[in-house]
Amino acid sequence: MKVLMIGDIYAKAGRDIFQKEINNIIKERKIDFVVVNGENTTHGKSISYDHYNFYKNNQVDVITSGNHIFKNKEVLDYITKHDDLLKPLNMYHTPGNGYVIVNKNGIDVCVLNLMGNNFMEPSNNVYEAMDDFLSLELEYDILLVDFHAETTAEKIAFALNYDGIITALVGTHTHVATADERILPKGTAFITDIGMSGVINSVIGVEPEQAIYKQRTGLMVKFEPAKGKAELNGVVIDIDDKLFKAQSIKRIKK
Questions:
Q1: What is the rounded CA–CA span in Å between residue 165 and residue 200?
Q2: Which of 85, 122, 183, 230 could be bridged to 17 by S-S, CB 3.0 to 4.6 A?
Q3: CA distances in angstroms from 158 to 33, 225, 228, 230, listed in the order given
Q4: What is the DSSP-derived secondary structure letter of residue 124?
Q5: Virtual torsion, Cα 68, 72, 73, 74, nearest 10 deg
Q6: How confident is the model at residue 205 (pLDDT cuts 50, 70, 90)?
């Protein structure tokens, strides 16, 4: 099975580049399963119901998220009705699912969404949440984890702690792709962050002038999604169909 996982899709520019490239990527890379992080989809914050349907109409199997998922109140109206839109599992106080199991081509794929504890909004301990999830002893062939976290050290430590238990763990949230994709010693495919899909010459998706003004002055400013040339970032993970072990993980940029 070949899995495509795409990093934080940011606003209209991210949606447009995704829609432009997704069919070609699926065809060229022979992709079987698609996961996107959609928490920045709608004007940079959260995801509207229309944009949820946009992904479902463009071959996406599961949509993950992170700390911005509930910034659009509309999410509260539909997240409990759609198992394939995830919120971080360790946001226990919020509605919605933190994981889902999807049967695709006869293979049971579990996608799990988690959020880090360092420099993030309050959430339950991510290790305790993972251990609680594993104690359920759910039946699946492949376990994919979107770990939405701020620091590289937290992502790496977590991945190494569950190396060999998770099929593939990708980091999201920083919007900057890292160059450390690899198979960990016990077999887990890993990358610290798969990056952002949005405007290249922006400050993690935001108009540069606005971010610079805030940094220079310390004053608040309303951020707007940047305009300009966009790129899509993600990874393709090749998983053995019999042993369900990751064979490779490769970055893509379009």
A1: 35
A2: 230
A3: 24, 31, 35, 31
A4: -
A5: -120
A6: very high
Query: Residue 115, SS3?
Result: strand
Is 175 annotated in a binding site? The answer is yes
- Give the closest residue to 11 by CA, choosing from 206, 170, 195: 206
* pLDDT the model gives residue 83: 97
Q: What sign has the CA pseudo-torsion 184, 66, 42, 222?
A: negative
- What's the DSSP call for residue 69? T
Q: How many helices (H) and strands (E) does the chain have?
A: 6, 13
pTM for the complete prediction? 0.97
- pLDDT confidence of residue 228: 96
Q: How many folded domains does the chain comprise?
A: 1
198-199 vs 246-253, strand pairing mode:
unpaired
Domain that holds residue 53: 2-253
Q: Which helix (H) or strand (E) holds 33?
A: strand 33-37
Catalytic residue among 43, 68, 82, 93: 68
**Whether 239 contacts 167, CB under 8 Å:** yes
> Is 43 part of any known ligand binding site?
no
Annotated ligand binding at 82? The verdict is no
pLDDT in tens, 159-202: 999 999 999 999 999 999 999 999 999 999 999 999 999 999 99
Annotated catalytic, 51? no
Per-residue tokens: 24: 């070609």
Residues 31-65: pLDDT tens digits? 999 999 999 999 999 999 999 999 999 999 999 99
Helix 152-161 vs helix 126-135: angle between axes, to the nearest 10 degrees? 30
The answer to whether the annotation marks 8 as part of a ligand binding site is yes
